[in-house]
């Protein structure tokens, strides 16, 4: 450990290092961008694995990566530095885009990246017929793991640290962690009497010491800022701090586990009174089925599913000798009961016909109205041209009458289009025309979930990500330095935005779980299951 800053810089000198070397991984490359890159790779890897499990094509993800990651990095480095004083002048403004230097804003990265991703996946969802929320559920939640890995870059930059602690209280941590848990002294504004910057001297950390390793008071006392000399800084004690970046990283991992294995599987625990093996015991032999822990293949009730259901063979000893029976995992039970089940087409044929008829009617009626509006524009232009021609050759005393007739004709044409708009509004509600509301969504949801199982809808995981990380960040923000806030040095604005993020997460959960399934559902689309 180092007790004072002079001890730290003396170690740098004796180790033939520079102050910047402390930020290098294995003494070769800046650690921060390396961990950031590894975090991105981890997010992509896990997302690909999960998408393959759901049989989702990777083409949209591949293109999305090319769009989202560069914009996310730009947003992170820009919003992480632009509020700091050093970057608020034109001479240093361009350095706000130096993503390899300290000062990346996670919210800047996730904000700009999410906007780009939202736009891309929403556009592509019209072609792939995969809900945008399916993509967001898979990608956003996995960012938690990438973020946790990327936080190790903060260790090398010696940032995102908490309240002051004694060195003894963190002695349980590995030495490569605990010996970095202090902030570098801020020397960027230190100048000499001539106004020269300390950093203008390329060997300032060497010249601070005599050849015997003792501090050079002559050199260090010529540099000062706000009444404090470089000598005072070097003689001051190093204050060790809580590894806040590590706590946040662990919190991210725990939140990922909660969402991945808890929120997404809520149906496995929330349907105690209405679970598959109570409805049809012979179809779901499993550990939780009181009637059939296992069942013979000839007694098993089975039906067509979108993918083969996995059964496990169990050896049984009977009076007639050894035999094999089948049992299922809880995952297989729910795949067979809900996720991989198609609704009975014949029983819902009338519903599908109504939906198709309604969609065609809406499309044709809207198209006709738009064509009528275009024709109105042409008619009005023609009326104006005819009016101007007649006006030139009409006597002065008859011009007023001509103007009245022209206005009446214009009003008549506008009245016709207004009546057609009223007919359209009476036939199709505003939300059906402009918000893509499907009036048959509730019936469609019932057809795909006839047993009324409680399930986690697509989009809920994304909402829990926003809510969970917002809460985690708000708690940890109370321990951060003001310069490391999401909005640096602005306490009220910072916590106000965090509150809005938490409310946004709650809204996403409520809308995707309780509103969207009954308002926005289409036949043939992939949501939490294929409709």
UniProtKB/TrEMBL annotation:
InterPro entries attached to this UniProt entry: Lgt (IPR001640)
Highest taxon of the lineage: Bacteria
Transmembrane regions listed in the UniProt entry: 24-49, 61-84, 104-122, 134-153, 242-263, 491-515
Gene Ontology annotations for the cellular component aspect, listed alphabetically: plasma membrane
Ranges in coiled-coil conformation: 366-427
Gene Ontology terms describing biological process: lipoprotein biosynthetic process
Molecular function terms from GO: phosphatidylglycerol-prolipoprotein diacylglyceryl transferase activity
UniProt entry keywords in alphabetical sequence: Cell membrane, Coiled coil, Lipoprotein, Membrane, Transferase, Transmembrane, Transmembrane helix
UniProt family annotation: Belongs to the Lgt family.
This protein's name: Prolipoprotein diacylglyceryl transferase
Protein source organism: Mesoplasma melaleucae
């Amino acid at each position: 450990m180092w007790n004072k800053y002079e001890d730290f810089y003396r170690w740098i000198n004796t180790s033939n290092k520079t102050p910047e070397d402390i930020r290098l991984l294995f003494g070769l490359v800046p650690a921060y961008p390396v961990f950031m890159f590894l975090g991105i790779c981890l997010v992509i890897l896990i997302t690909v694995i999960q998408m393959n499990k759901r049989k989702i094509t990777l083409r949209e993800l591949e293109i999305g990566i090319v769009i989202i990651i560069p914009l996310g990095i730009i947003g992170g480095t820009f919003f992480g530095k632009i509020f700091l004083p050093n970057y608020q002048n034109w001479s240093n403004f361009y350095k706000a885009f130096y993503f390899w230097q300290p000062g990346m804003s996670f919210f800047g990265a996730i904000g700009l990246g999410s906007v780009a991703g939202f736009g891309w996946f929403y556009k592509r969802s019209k072609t792939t017929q995969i809900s945008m929320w399916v993509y967001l559920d898979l990608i956003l939640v996995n960012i938690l793991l990438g973020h946790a890995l990327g936080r190790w870059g903060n260790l090398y930059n010696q940032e995102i640290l908490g309240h002051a602690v004694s060195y003894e209280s963190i002695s349980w941590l590995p030495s490569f962690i605990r010996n970095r848990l202090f902030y570098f002294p801020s020397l960027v504004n230190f100048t000499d009497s001539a106004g020269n910057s300390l950093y203008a001297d390329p060997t300032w950390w060497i010249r601070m010491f005599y050849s015997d390793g003792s501090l050079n008071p002559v050199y260090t006392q010529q540099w000062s800022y706000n009444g404090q000399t470089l000598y005072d800084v070097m003689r001051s004690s190093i204050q060790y701090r809580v590894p806040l970046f590590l706590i946040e990283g662990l919190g991210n991992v725990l939140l990922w586990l909660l969402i991945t294995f808890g929120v997404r599987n809520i149906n496995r625990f929330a349907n105690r009174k209405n679970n598959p093996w109570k409805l049809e015991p012979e179809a779901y032999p499993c550990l939780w089925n009181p009637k059939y822990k296992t069942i013979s293949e000839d007694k098993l009730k089975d039906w067509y599913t979108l993918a083969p259901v996995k059964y496990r063979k169990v050896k049984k000893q009977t009076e007639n000798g050894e035999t094999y029976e089948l049992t299922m995992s809880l995952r297989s039970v729910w795949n067979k009961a809900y996720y991989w089940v198609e609704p009975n087409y014949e029983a819902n044929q009338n519903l599908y016909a109504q939906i198709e008829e309604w969609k065609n009617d809406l499309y044709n009626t809207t198209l006709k109205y738009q064509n009528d509006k275009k024709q109105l524009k042409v008619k009005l232009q023609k009326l104006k041209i005819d009016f101007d021609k007649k006006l030139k050759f009409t006597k002065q005393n008859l011009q007023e009458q001509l103007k009245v007739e022209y206005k009446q004709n214009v009003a008549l044409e506008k009245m016709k289009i207004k009546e057609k708009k009223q007919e359209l509004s009476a036939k199709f509600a505003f939300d059906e025309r402009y918000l893509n509301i499907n009036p048959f969504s509730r019936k469609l949801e019932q057809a795909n979930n006839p047993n009324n199982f409680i399930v986690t809808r697509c989009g809920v995981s994304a909402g829990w990500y926003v809510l969970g990380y917002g809460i985690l960040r708000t708690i940890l923000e109370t321990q951060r330095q003001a310069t490391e806030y999401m909005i640096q040095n602005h306490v009220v604005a910072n916590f106000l935005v965090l509150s809005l993020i938490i409310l946004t997460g709650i809204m996403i959960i409520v809308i995707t779980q309780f509103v969207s399934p009954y308002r926005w559902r289409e036949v043939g689309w992939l949501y939490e299951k294929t409709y």
